[in-house]
Design a protein that fits this description.
The complex is a heterodimer. By secondary structure, chain A is an all-beta fold. Chain A contains no helices and twelve strands. Chain A has one domain: Immunoglobulin-like. Chain B has a single domain, classed as Sandwich (Immunoglobulin-like).
Chain lengths: 114, 115
């Protein structure tokens, strides 16, 4: 069965530090890739997505992610985090065109201290 | 416009009871999804509807769980004979249509606690 692994359970950073959150998926076919964010007290919202084309995608709030097909990875990055980035981050995939159910990783909690 | 809404926001029930959780999707969205999120886990797919029909119910854990969407908009997730292990946040999402390219917009969830 398809699965998504997020390597970091809890990441603690100081403001202005760089961020990279790992995400790997297990599926040999074509997938669509997503990062969702959940700020404290808010609902899940889409941060960025990759369907095809340029493997480096940019999302909201200065986040970007790189799809590396050979590594089955879709890591999330931000060069300089802010206190307001404190949230839980979820990587998700669904199968190209076919099923639309999202398969989520367990999430990474990011805590940014000011 | 309004986002996905879910009611109630919190539901506490006793083991063995029946519960209904409601989801009101974004107007015009034909696809609707239910997920369950247990503590420390990511959301786990339960079922999705395209229009009124359940297009994929492979995530429903057992026959105590059932969902309907009779008019193609509001959906109700029904859980019979609740068990303590059913305690979780139940999330609803909707998208314009089904298909992997469509962004799913999530509601705030219903936190179900089974005592």
């Amino acid at each position: 069965a398809q699965s998504v692994s997020q390597h970091n359970h809890h990441v603690i950073l100081s403001e202005a530090a760089s961020l990279e959150l790992g995400c790997n998926y297990s599926y040999g076919g074509t997938v669509n890739l997503f990062w969702y964010v959940q700020y404290p007290g808010q609902h899940l919202q889409l941060l960025l997505k990759y369907f095809s084309g340029d493997p480096l995608v940019k999302g909201i709030k200065g986040f970007e992610a790189e799809f590396i097909k050979s590594k089955f990875s879709f890591n999330l990055r931000k060069p300089s985090v802010q206190w307001s980035d404190t949230a839980e981050y979820f990587c998700a995939v669904n199968l190209f065109q076919a099923g639309t159910a999202l398969i989520f990783g367990k999430g990474t909690t990011l805590s940014v201290s000011s | 416009g309004a986002g996905v809404s879910q009611t109630p926001s919190n539901k506490v029930t006793e083991k063995g009871k029946y519960v209904e959780l409601r989801c009101d999707p974004i107007s015009g969205h034909t696809a609707l999804y239910w997920y369950r999120q247990s503590l420390g886990q990511g959301p786990e797919f339960l079922i999705y509807f395209q229009g009124t029909g359940a297009a994929d119910d492979s995530g429903l854990p057992n026959d105590r769980f059932f969902a309907v969407r009779p008019e193609g908009s509001v959906s109700t997730l029904k859980i019979q004979r609740t068990e303590r292990g059913d305690s979780a946040v139940y999330l609803c999402a909707s998208s314009l249509t089904s298909g992997g390219y469509n962004e799913q917009f999530f509601g705030p969830g219903t936190r179900l606690t089974v005592l």
